[in-house]
Amino acid sequence: MKKISTIFLLATLSYGFSYESMAENNIPFLLQDTIPLRDTIPSPDLLPKNNTVSGTIKDNDGNTLPGATVQIKGSETGTVSDDLGRYSIDIPANSQGTVLIFSFLGFKSQEVNLGNQTSINVTMESDDQVLDEVVVIGYGSSRRADLTGAVAQVNSEELNAYPTSNILQSLNGRASGVQVIQNNGAPGGGVSVRIRGSNSIQGDNDPLYVIDGFPYSGNPTNLNNSDIASIEILKDASATAIYGSRGANGVVLITTKNGSGSGTVVEFDAAYSVQSLRSKLKLMNGNQYAQLMNIQAKNDGVSPYFTDVEITNFGEGTDWQNEIFQQAPIKSTSLSISGGGDNTNFLVAGSAYQQDGIIKGSDYDRYSIRSAINHKISEKFKIDFNSSLSKLVTSRRDSEGGSRGASMIGAAIVASPLSEPYNSGGAINNLTDDFPFISPDLVNPLYFINEQSTVITANVVLANAAFSYNPIPELTVKITGGIENRDDRTDNYRSRNFINSNGNASVTTSQYVSRLNENTITYADVFSEKHDLNVLAGVTYQDFTTKYLAGSGSGFLSDLYEADNLGAAQTPGIPTSGYAKSVLLSYLGRVNYGFANKYLLTASFRADGSSRYSEGNKWGYFPSGALAWKVSEEGFMKGLEAISTLKIRSSWGLTGSQAISPYATLNRLFPGYTIFGDELYNFLAPGSTLPGDLKWETTEQFDLGLDLGLWKDRVVLGADYYVKTTEDLLSTVRLPSSFGYTTTIDNVGSIENKGIELSVFAQLFSSDFRWSVDGNISFNRNRVLSLNEGQAILTNFINVVTVSDNFSIMEEGRPLGQFWGYVEDGYTETGAIRFKDLNKDGEISEEDKTYIGNPNPDFYYGFNSNMNFKGFQLDLFFQGSKGNDIMNVSAISSTMDYGQGLNMPEEVLLDHWTPQNPGAKYPKISRNTVARVSDRFVEDGSYLRLKNVLLAYNFSLKNSDGKFLQSLRIYASGQNLLTFTDYSWWDPEVNSKGSDNRLGIDHFSYPIPKSYTIGLNATF
Question: pLDDT for 133-152, tens place per residue?
């Protein structure tokens, strides 16, 4: 019987939850909301009634359980208990042998034979829910209690706590060891996810995303939050090594919802949000701006620009932040229909997410439709099919970077408050015409909003099918095929009305296609009731093909066509196109063995062959092993009632990274043009990068973990310590000019990440008032161990006119991406900035640079509180980071570029150097002021944020009998309402450049908004 149970468990978890198998094996439905949804009840005309059974449902402590499910086994008839734990259910006339199933989240399901009873009171026993739940792992699944690796799970309720344009935003603060960095607040803006730190310089440090078994490229922006059943995050090498060359940065497994055999269910979700700027920068008004301009003129020996009377009459002037920022809505709706029977389950879902940005003219729309079909052909054959089609449309107005107002966001900060947005004729005002001292680089930000557009359209298709064959109950053969196709088009247009423009257009299209074939065989059996064995072997193939085409033109007679007719351009650009393809062939195997439910062993191995690497180095080999001891199952622990679960885990393994482009090891030829005489000739020539004989980046990781459950798992603690080292680090190396090449890519170094992760879950109350809390905190230390010949690498070059220099460094023994620059030492007698002469040579030079900041946090954390009382629900979610620095590049030109007519923060006027104020924050206001990359621009980026607060009410619907409306929930929530930080700019949660060597940079970034949301969830 135990063998049969094991097979049913494997089939159920691998291919979708079916109601019949869960009922037979007493597997609780793991994807319920806090109050389980009752199953559909057919029309009373179809069920002749004989009697009614009623009663009360309580827990072991005598507390009633509202929302418990009562189901007639083998039928679609069911109900739920009311606020007092009472239930009533109609029984069909032919009720002989009827069995009632009682279930409630966090308690063991019970089956009761009805017989002739008309009143049944049930006392439900608490279930060890947290450690007994099933989680998805690579190419399979496991009970949490049987895990040997470090795996975190985020459930559907947490993912849908508030609307997001990217499901990855919902992971922020939800799992230890997982750092989610929102690059900016633009609609559809990028998100960077780091699992246990950064491993690579040359390659991407984002984890591998696997959607329903398909390794997906990039961020999964095609998915809607309501489509997700759960997300599992594989962190240690034991869990990730099965993905070999793509597991070094961790693996995120995304499982979408499937239909179930419990009748037809319709789910509808809708939400409406209003966003706004969290807080405005305190910039100078018109009066203050004029004062500062006169101070600069006086200090530079220039006649004052304004009289005292003019200054007095200027008043507030134009608030340019009001001109570009707005309140903006988010509308999110989704509808799914699911159901099935004994052999076939289905789900069809559609969703629409429409977000307007808080900067005028920016928006992001996503429309998607998804289907899932699971069909049991016979006792031995089964087929599964999943597909999703998404259309993404993004209008960008998030021009970042720049200096002296050459970008939209930069211009909105430094534009003169004495200038009007529009001139007397109603056209956009040219700011440089207002005053002679204003920089010619300064552009009215309304040009970027009204006369320039960037529209990105993407069509994404993800489809995969799996065929399963069970020749014997213990053996499963599975063949999977899938395809990912993404077509992108970017249209850029700058109108004829844009300053100094005669119309400029460009169009870029690209197609990305990835095909996947996976063939696995799994054997699972239990011998002598003590030996639990699961063996997996497989071979996989995946290819990746990218094509692109780009064209441009300038000089349009009219703005009518915009980017839709490049042939209308007076001067066509040179079209370009490209093609790239790579292939990955893999062999994999894994053995899971358990003895007496006490001792657990996992061993895996994967061999990856990649077309990207050099001959002789194309294959990488990635083994891993893990041991776990369930100490709480030992006889000497049985008397300790306080400790319900105690497990010790240890693992080691190797993973890899494909950190190079498809043709990086080949000597490629590139096209160009040259002139001989009076003729133009095209040619092919080698590029400037010397191809290298490259090896795989390989990451070795050791993990030691502890899982502890107290008082029947009412409190669950988790702790992990890890050391992760990446060898053969790939990096770009500069070459002497005599080589004929300027750079090459080589295996030059190594990086180490080590840290501690802690998590806690506690069920504080479980009666009518239910309150649970959970939290996590992660400490990671990143260190560069070695580089090419020990030479430091300067990175992050910026040019904002007043400062032109590198401000980051990679050096042995130091954290990745550390800030590098000068240290200020007060002011000279004339108010100029004094810099420390660290090498004591009497002059300030490159030799005086030092470490001035670290963008890597000391720790990051999340805390969640969930309270429920008689249908009311209150959730509070906090998230934060401590000890990370931010390089505020925005402040360089916005606080130090004097004499160009730029507006600045109010404190520049109130706290600048004068003979009477020698210890001021800012130097003398003069165009002769010299600024450098220094500790002045490095700020503490630590913050604590109330990420989400939610108040909801779950209607009991006790009078509807669930015949039409099964559940109804309404809620109101707020996002980013409170932020505690010392960072001076818009938002501390910023990452303008979006990569690991460029962490912690704020360069006129699109700010993250706060928002208020109302919504409802209904099930029919």
Answer: 677 888 887 777 778 888 88
User: Using one digit for the tens of pLDDT, what is the confidence trace for 295-324?
Assistant: 999 999 999 999 999 999 998 999 999 999
Query: Pick the residue with more confidence: 313 or 23?
Result: 313
Residue 857 vs residues 80, 207, 882: alpha-carbon distances, Å: 47, 19, 6
Distances (CA, A) of 147 to 178, 294, 451, 759: 19, 70, 56, 16
Q: Is the pLDDT of residue 226 over 70?
A: yes
Cα–Cα dist 245/855, whole Å: 28
Which residue's structure tokens are 């050096």?
Answer: 811
pLDDT attached to residue 90: 80
Residue given tokens 């919902």 in the structure block: 170
φ/ψ (deg, to 5) at 720: -140, 140
Rounded Cα distance between 977 and 100, Å, is 46
What share of the chain in percent tops pLDDT 70?
A: 91
Asked whether 384 and 468 are in contact (CB, 8 A), the reply is yes
Residue 486: pLDDT band with limits 50, 70, 90: very high
Return the structure tokens found at 125.
């026993």
Output the CA–CA distances (angstroms, integers) from residue 133 to 127, 230, 458, in the order listed.
Answer: 10, 12, 37
Residues 6+ apart with CB under 8 A from 425: none
Tokens of 936: 């002045």
Tokens standing for 1013?
A: 């949301």
Q: Are 53 and 91 a contacting pair, CB within 8 Å?
A: yes
What pLDDT, in 10s, does the model give residues 994-1019? 665 678 899 999 999 999 999 999 98
Residue 27 has pLDDT above 80, yes or no: no
Q: Which residues pair with 557 in a beta bridge?
A: none
Q: Are strands 151-155 and 228-234 parallel, antiparallel or unpaired?
A: antiparallel
**8 A C-beta contact, residue 624 and residue 238:** yes
Structure-token pair, residue 273: 């949000």
In order, the DSSP letters of 465-489 are: EEEEE-SSTTEEEEEEEEEEEEEEE
361 φ/ψ sector (left φ>0, alpha ψ -120 to 50, else beta):
left
DSSP label at residue 312: H
> Would you call 425 exposed, middle or buried from its count of C-beta atoms within 10 A (0-12, 13-18, 19+)?
exposed
φ/ψ of 484, rounded to 5, equals -120, 125
Please name which of 957, 959, 961 lies closest in space to residue 49, comparing C-alpha atoms: 961
Q: Is 220 in contact with 254 (CB distance < 8 Å)?
A: yes
Cross-strand partners of 104: 107
Contact in structure between 279 and 271 (CB atoms under 8 Å): no
Q: Give the 3-state secondary structure percentages of the chain, helix then strand then coil, rounded to 5.
A: 15, 50, 35
